[in-house]
Amino acid sequence: MKLFVYDNYETMSAAAAEAVMQEIQIKNDALLCTASGDSPAGLYKKLVDNLKKNNTDVSKLYFVGLDEWMGMNGNDEGSCRFHLNNQLFNPLNISENNIVFFDGRAKSVNMECGRIDNFIKNKNGIDVAIVGLGMNGHVGMNEPGTPALLHSHVAKIDPVTQQVGQKYFKEKKEISSGLTLGIANLLEAKNVMLIVSGRKKAEIVKQVFEEKISEKLPAGFLRNHPSFSVYLDTEAASLLINKV
Question: Is residue 91, in this structure, part of any structural domain at all?
């Protein structure tokens, strides 16, 4: 595990974006797993700017979504796909053929999970997984108590996450379940990047990295990954005993 701490959100986002750029330069047809949320938003902005500045060909890149709320897809304002469309896919003019995302409106959510897993397998795995950290230690929609052996699955959303998740919508939404990649999908990725910012995340960061690895804090399982990079700003890292 590599842990990096930066003075502020801006420099953290720039460093994380540069790391993604390096992977894209190594493999121009990489499969990137993208999470929505506040923490990685700055990374996406920097990444878009860098790719455009360098006139990088992104036509061969592929993207798989980390998760999606049940009953929603890209047509729903506030959905995970909606945010990534605005922050990443549309600014880069990514072809729809190169984006595979959970459809929370699918008739069979179990088949939908199988579709995502098969796509990842056919692409020989995720090259870079970009994820954030929930207030209760979740990653994706893998809430506390989720086994690490699960691949894509239907998740029951913890009340804490339901409450926090309302910020993405203009009106109160029913977000009691969702579709998500499992911890197993992430552990099988070639590289995993965890992006965390803000003082409000400091306590959960401390728990994830200093407590015993268990289902209580699903993000902690990523500590077992051989190529796991953690990007924190000083506020998110403020309670850690050991900082790099």
Answer: yes
**CATH number, position 142:** 3.40.50.1360
Burial class (CB in 10 A: 0-12, 13-18, 19+), 155: buried
67 included as an active-site residue: yes
- 140 Rama class: left (phi>0) / alpha (psi -120 to 50) / beta: left
Give the domain extent around 192: 2-233
Active-site residue among 68, 103, 143, 233? 143
Q: Is residue 30 part of a domain?
A: yes
Q: How many CB atoms lie within 10 A of CB 207?
A: 16
pLDDT tens digit string along 158-191?
998 999 899 889 888 889 999 999 999 999 999 9
Q: Which of 73, 117, 138, 151 is catalytic?
A: 138
C-alpha span between 20 and 41 (Å, rounded)? 14
pLDDT tens for each residue of 52-105: 999 999 999 999 999 999 999 999 999 999 999 999 999 999 999 999 999 999
* Residue 153 annotated as catalytic: no
Residue 86 resides in a domain: yes
Q: Among residues 67, 103, 117, 233, which one is catalytic?
A: 67
Residue 52 resides in a domain: yes
Q: Which among 183, 88, 84, 170 has a CA at the least distance from the CA of 129? A: 183
Choosing from 73, 83, 112, 136, the catalytic residue is 136
Rg (CA), the chain: 17
Q: CB of 153 within 8 A of CB of 178? A: no
